[in-house]
Structure formats: C-alpha cells, structure tokens
Amino acid sequence: MGTSQSYRAPNTSRWAAFVTAIASGAPLDRVRSELFNAGNEWQEALSSAAVASFATTVEALHADMPRRLVESQSTAAAVSDALAEARLSSHEAGFSAAVSLAERALGRYLLTGVVGSDSPEAAAAQWLAHRGQTPQQSVASFLGEVLAQYARHVTDREAGRLAESRIGAGASARLADDVARQSAALVESITFRADVGRASEAWPQLVAAAFETGRVLPRGQR
C-alpha cells in the first residue's frame, strides 16, 4: 500500500490500470472509473471517524454559520475559526491519512459559501442562499468537495510522474481538473435519505456509495 500517509500507488494491477488509462489518453470516464477501482485504501481512509467528523461539522454549520458570520470580526475570521474547530474535533475522533483532503474540502466548501461578500451580514445572506435547504444537502456538497480533492490529489500524483515524458505538464493539470469535476458530480447520483441520522453515522455509507458509483463505466466503454 506504500506509506500510510501518502498512499503512493502500490505496484498492483489496480493502480497500473489507472496509470495506463492516463498514459494512453483514455476517455475521462475510463480514467475516473480506474481511479475509483484502485482506491480501496482511500475509501477506507475517507470513511474514517476522523473524516466523518468534518461532515458532522458541516451538518452543524448549516444552521450555525450565519450567526458566526454576523458575530465575527470578519468573514475570514469566521471561516478560520470554523476550520480550527473542525480540525480539533477531527483530531479527537482519531487519525486518518485523508484528513488533509477533508480539511481542504471543508475550506473550499466554506469559502464558496461566502466569497465576495462585503460585510458579515452579506456573507450570512450568501451562506443561506448557498448552503441548500437541508443539512443533508450541505453534507452532499461537502462530499462532492471531498471526492474532488481525492481525485485531484491522486491524479496529480500519478499524472505528474508522467508529465515530462508522456503527456506533458499542461495536459496533466487539465486532466486533474477534469477528473476532479467529474468526481465531484458523482454526488448527483447518490440518494441522500432524510432519515439516515447524523452525518457522522451516515458518512461511511455515503463514501461507499460514491466509490461504487465512481467505478461504473457507461455501457459503451465496458
């Protein structure tokens, strides 16, 4: 499996298929499918309690973020404080090599909800418009960010090693962007039930559903 903290691609047929898909210029759907086929270790890491803790934070911020924004000295301070608290809660929940991906995903999720606002009140209003109607929708958006971070990290890692000799740095960067976008869109095919309970309890099942969906190829490419 390689080192526990970086998950360098091990010498297995699963990861070899992913690298081959990149090097051969396979269709994007094929690259994405091989990415999720190969990532058993990542699925386990992303399902961990330490990452589920971030989903629990997102669930709570659905209602609480407007108050934080209005009461904070600045939008940046409110986002920074929320990230710091989420990081502490995750640390208390345990360890996962995927925590850094989850933290980056949370940062992007929070900033997307408030970026461009010129006052705490405007930021709160923008958050309400961005967050979705239910906490489950907030968690779905966060899961999309997590999947994008996973896809970008692993694609950058493997495509970067091929960039100089095989596909070029520009193509490598574009591929990582495209795989990240398609991976984030997987949440559109996942059913988020309203009765699943707390995000921390539902999170492993949501990650599993995302990986299962990510592995599937369109009929014409199977």
Structure description:
The chain is mostly helical and 222 residues long. It has one domain. It is 74% helix and 0% strand. It has ten helices and no strands. The longest helix has 33 residues, at 135-167. The radius of gyration is 18 Å and the shape is globular. 41% of the residues are buried.
Which keywords apply here?
222 residues; mainly alpha; 10 helices; 0% strand
The overall strand count is: 0
* Strand portion: under 5%
Which sheet architecture does the biggest sheet show? none
Radius of gyration: 18 Å
Query: Low-confidence segments, ≥5 residues, pLDDT <50?
Result: 1-7
Overall body shape = globular
List the domain count as a whole number: 1
The helix tally amounts to 10
| Fraction of residues in H or I helices | over 70%
Structural class: mainly alpha
Mean pLDDT: 88
Distance between the termini: 27 Å
* Strand and helix order: HHHHHHHHHH
Structure described in brief:
Helices cover 74% and strands 0% of the residues.
